[in-house]
Write a structure and sequence with these properties.
Blueprint: H1 10-18, H2 26-36, E1 41-44, H3 51-62, E2 73-76, H4 80-93, E3 101-104, H5 110-118, E4 123-126, H6 128-137, E5 147-151, H7 153-158, H8 162-171, E6 177-182, H9 187-196, E7 201-204, E8 215-221, H10 227-238, E9 243-246, H11 250-262, E10 267-270, H12 276-287, E11 293-296, E12 311-314, H13 321-328, E13 338-344, H14 349-359, E14 365-366, H15 393-396
C-alpha cells in the first residue's frame, strides 16, 4: 500500500515525498480510517513503528485553519523531548499547509510561551502541566478544541499524570474526538479508555507488549561493582560510536558519565535535573556523533528519535518491566536492526524475570572473563535508599533513586521535571 491509497491530500502527499516516505506502516494504515471517521481511537503499536504520523496524517487531513487563533488539535505527551519531537513532525508534514504548530513545556519562561500561543496556534503540543497552566491563565480557549491526542499514555500513567489528565479532560468541550496512543495496552489504559472515551475503536497491530523483532537482545551477568569497567570495555573495544545508556537514577547517570569521560570516551548525561538547554545540547552532540555516549534516565526513553541508533545498553535494568520495552525500542527503529545489551547484577534478578515474562522470551546471557557475577551477592532487590553494598541508614538519607515503585506516588511530586 502507498500513501495515495490512504486518500491523503496533495499538501500531505508532497510533504511525504520530500521526506522520502513511500509506504505507510501497519499502524498508519490501520488507524487512518477510524480517525478520519471521527471515532475515538486507542492505537497500540511498538515503539518506532510510526505512531506519531499515524495520528497526525488523518488529523491534519481534516484540519481547517482557525481564524480565532485558538488550537483545534491538542497533543499531550509526557516529556519535553517529546514535545520538541512531535512539534517537529507536525512542521515536516505541514510544509505545504497553512498550519501553526506550537510546542510548550515546563522549565522555560511561561510568558514567552503565552506570547507564542497568543500569536495563533492550530496544533498545540504540550506536557500536561504546561497545558493546564496555560489554559487556566486564559492563554487560549479550550472551548474551540476539536481533537485531543494523548500520546505515550502508558508513560503518562506511570509518571503519575492521571489526576492532571482528568483535570484537563474536565475543562475540554464534551463534543470532541479523543485519541490515545501507546506502545503497550495495559489494564490502566483500558480503564482510562473506558472512563473517558466513547465506544473507541481499538487499533492494535502487534502482539501485546512485544519487543521489536529486529533488536538483538543480550544480557551480561556481572558483579554490581564491575559494571562500569565492563561497559567501558564493551564500548572501547567494540569501537562503538553511538551508544545510548540507561541508568535508573539521575546521580547514577552523572557518575557514569564522568567515569566514561575519564576513560577517554566522550559522553553526556540527560535527565530531569538538566536544564532544557543542556539537554538539547547533549542530544544534538549525540546525533552529530561529536558525543559517543548519551547516558539517560527513563525520561529519555520516550522522547528520543535517533535514526539507525545501533546500540542501547541498560547499565541498570528497570524495575518497571514496560520501561525495558521503551528503552530498547530506541534502536531497531523503522525496520532497521539494532542491539540492546543489559548489564544484570544479582539484585536485579527479579526485575529480569519480570521483563522476560513480559516480552515472552528467555534473553540470552553471557559472562565475560574478569567481570564475573558475585556468587555471594544477594538476589534481593536493593530497597529504596540503599547504596551499592551499603545498608547504613546514613546512606539511605542520600538516596536518589526516583524510579522505585511509582504507582503510589502523588502526581505533584513527579511532574516538576517533566512539565
Amino acid at each position: 500500500m502507498t500513501f495515495d491509497d490512504l486518500n491523503i491530500n496533495n499538501p500531505l502527499r508532497n510533504a511525504l515525498v520530500d521526506l522520502e516516505y513511500m509506504n505507510p506502516t501497519p499502524i498508519q494504515i490501520a488507524a487512518f480510517s477510524p480517525i478520519m471517521s471521527g471515532r475515538d481511537v486507542v492505537g497500540v503499536a511498538q515503539t518506532g513503528t510510526g505512531k506519531t504520523f499515524a495520528y497526525l496524517m488523518p488529523l491534519l487531513r481534516m484540519l481547517k485553519f482557525s481564524t480565532d487563533g485558538n488550537p483545534r488539535i491538542a497533543i499531550l505527551v509526557p516529556t519535553r523531548e517529546l514535545v520538541v519531537q512531535v512539534t517537529e513532525e507536525v512542521k515536516k508534514l505541514t510544509t505545504y499547509m497553512t498550519v501553526r504548530p506550537v510546542g510548550v513545556y515546563g522549565g522555560t519562561n511561561i510568558n514567552t510561551q503565552k506570547q507564542s500561543v497568543a500569536e495563533g496556534v492550530d496544533v498545540l503540543v504540550a506536557t500536561p502541566g504546561r497545558f493546564f497552566d496555560l489554559a487556566l491563565s486564559g492563554a487560549f480557549k479550550t472551548k474551540f478544541l476539536k481533537k485531543l491526542v494523548i500520546d505515550e499514555v502508558d508513560e503518562m500513567l506511570n509518571l503519575g499524570f492521571r489526576t492532571q489528565l482528568k483535570n484537563i479532560l474536565d475543562m475540554l468541550p464534551e463534543k470532541r474526538q479523543n485519541l490515545l496512543f501507546s506502545a503497550t495496552f495495559s489494564k490502566d489504559i483500558k480503564k482510562l479508555a473506558t472512563e473517558f472515551l466513547y465506544q473507541p475503536a481499538i487499533v492494535e497491530v502487534s502482539p501485546e507488549n512485544s519487543t521489536v523483532d529486529k533488536i538483538n537482545q543480550k544480557i551480561y551477568r556481572v558483579a554490581k561493582d564491575k559494571k562500569t569497567g565492563l561497559i567501558i570495555k564493551l564500548i572501547s573495544e567494540g569501537n562503538w560510536k553511538q551508544v545510548l545508556v540507561f541508568t535508573r537514577t539521575k546521580h547514577g547517570a552523572n557518575r557514569l558519565c564522568k567515569k566514561m569521560i575519564s576513560a577517554g570516551i566522550s559522553a553526556a548525561a540527560i535527565h530531569g535535573n538538566k536544564t532544557q538547554g543542556a539537554r538539547t545540547k547533549a542530544l544534538a552532540g549525540f546525533k552529530s556523533n561529536s558525543i559517543r555516549v548519551l547516558v539517560a534516565t527513563d525520561i529519555a526513553a520516550r522522547g528520543l528519535d535517533i535514526p539507525l541508533l545501533p546500540h542501547v545498553i541498560n547499565f541498570e535494568i528497570p524495575n518497571i518491566s514496560e520501561d525495558y520495552v521503551h528503552r530498547i525500542g530506541r534502536t531497531g527503529r523503522a525496520g532497521a536492526s539494532g542491539e540492546a545489551l543489559s548489564l544484570v547484577s544479582a539484585d536485579e534478578t527479579s526485575y529480569l524475570k519480570a521483563i522476560e515474562k513480559l516480552v515472552g522470551i528467555k534473553i540470552p546471557a553471557e559472562v565475560i572473563e574478569g567481570f564475573e557475577p558475585d556468587p555471594n551477592a544477594s538476589t534481593e532487590p536493593l530497597k529504596r535508599g540503599q547504596q551499592q553494598g551499603k545498608n547504613n541508614p546514613k546512606h539511605k538519607k542520600k538516596s536518589s533513586n526516583n524510579h522505585s515503585k511509582r504507582t503510589n506516588t502523588k502526581p505533584s511530586n513527579r511532574n516538576n521535571n517533566r512539565r
